[in-house]
């Protein structure tokens, strides 16, 4: 029997996309209810899930977490097969939503077409399966970081520098461990490797999220919470223990559902950018910050 805990009733094919929308909406409402009651566990669970599935959209992270809370690694049926693993008989897939891109000529649209028509994006429901729902060849165990980021710390520093940000270590920051100055990051010397890693991620998140349009920035509380949530997510994704108090994350919600959704989406995109950068240190990240800023502000 699978160790994954599945929730919800899976609908027929015709209504799977609507089912996905309802699951996400319900999950968000439950998250808000938990935060309003003074509990941050649900948000921390979401950030932990995001860390494991950072390449997935905000909505798909919610879908995975809602249908299979214990999911550790998901993939499609054929992807698992290519890795020598097979979905167990009787297992039900986890529904996520995938985009399909069409040219206007591929559709039956009656609208007149211009010489430079934008592609049309539509969505369909697809199924993925958690590793606990499969059997077969063992997968390589990921490296565990625990209390020391090891080689990922210089990889992070290199990625920050390649993004065009001036990184400098200083002896005093007036009580702060790091600061983001818009194109510059300053970090306190003598920090432990784990603290330096977390601080640098926090400040890079500020550079990505909060140093573009300063007039449109959210409140300082939300800015700090977004940056710390990105740091939590990135650290968690590499297995690094952090000392962040869970109660800090409650401050991300100020009574406005739209603001919460926007923050979670921005956190996901920024975390994804940083995780990808530190895991591909040889790949040029010259434009990573500008690209991340653009993605973080897409609606």
Describe the structure in brief.
The protein has about 300 residues and is of the alpha+beta class.
Total number of beta strands: 8
**Helix count, per DSSP?**
9
Helix content: 40-55%
Radius of gyration: 21 Å
Please tell me the overall pLDDT: 81
> How far from one another are the termini?
41 Å
Q: Helix and strand succession?
A: HHHEHEEEEHEEEHHHH
Residue stretches low in confidence (pLDDT < 50, at least 5 long) are 1-5, 281-299
Order of neighbouring strands in the sheet with most strands: 1-4-3
Strand fraction equals 5-15%
Largest sheet descriptor:
3 strands, antiparallel
Going by helix content, strand content and strand pairing, the class is: alpha+beta
Structural notes for this entry:
A hairpin with a 3-residue loop joins strand 7 and strand 8. The strands form three sheets. Strands 1-4-3 form a three-stranded antiparallel beta sheet. With 299 residues, it is of the alpha+beta class. The protein is built from nine helices and eight strands. It is globular, with a radius of gyration of 21 Å.
List keywords for this structure.
299 residues, alpha+beta, three-stranded antiparallel sheet, three-stranded mixed sheet, 9 helices, 43% helix, globular, disordered N terminus
SSE diagram, text form:
Layout: H1 16-36, H2 41-52, H3 58-67, E1 74-75, H4 77-82, E2 85-87, E3 94-102, E4 120-130, E5 134-136, H5 152-162, E6 166-170, E7 178-180, E8 184-188, H6 193-210, H7 220-237, H8 257-279, H9 288-296
Parallel strand pairs: 6-8
Antiparallel strand pairs: 1-4, 2-5, 3-4, 7-8
Helix pairs in contact: 1-3, 2-3, 2-7, 5-6, 5-8, 6-7, 6-8, 7-8, 8-9
């Amino acid at each position: 029997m699978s160790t994954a805990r599945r929730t919800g009733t899976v609908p027929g094919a015709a209504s799977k996309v609507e089912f996905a929308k309802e699951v996400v909406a319900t999950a968000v409402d439950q998250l808000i209810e938990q935060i309003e009651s003074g509990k941050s566990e649900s948000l921390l669970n979401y950030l932990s899930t995001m860390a494991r599935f950072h390449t997935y959209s905000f909505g798909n992270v919610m879908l995975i977490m809602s249908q299979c809370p214990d999911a550790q690694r998901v993939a499609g049926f054929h992807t698992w097969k290519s890795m020598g693993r097979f979905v167990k008989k009787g297992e039900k897939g986890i529904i996520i939503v995938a985009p399909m891109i069409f040219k206007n000529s591929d559709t039956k649209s009656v609208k007149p077409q211009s010489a430079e028509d934008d592609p049309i994006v539509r969505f369909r429901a697809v199924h993925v399966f958690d590793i606990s729902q499969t059997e077969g060849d063992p997968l390589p165990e990921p490296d565990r970081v625990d209390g020391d980021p090891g080689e990922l710390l210089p990889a992070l520093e290199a990625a920050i520098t390649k993004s065009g940000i001036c990184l400098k270590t200083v002896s005093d920051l007036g009580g702060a461990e790091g600061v983001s100055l818009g194109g510059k990051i300053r970090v306190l010397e003598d920090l432990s490797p784990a603290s330096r890693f977390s601080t640098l991620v926090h400040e890079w998140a500020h550079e990505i999220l909060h140093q573009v349009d300063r007039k449109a920035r959210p409140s300082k509380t939300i800015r700090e919470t977004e940056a710390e949530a990105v740091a939590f997510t990135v650290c968690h994704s590499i297995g690094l223990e952090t000392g962040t108090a869970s109660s800090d994350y409650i401050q991300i919600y100020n009574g406005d559902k739209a603001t919460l959704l926007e923050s979670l989406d921005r956190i996901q995109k920024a975390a994804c950018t940083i995780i990808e950068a530190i895991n591909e240190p040889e790949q040029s990240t010259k434009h990573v910050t500008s690209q991340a800023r653009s993605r973080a502000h897409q609606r």
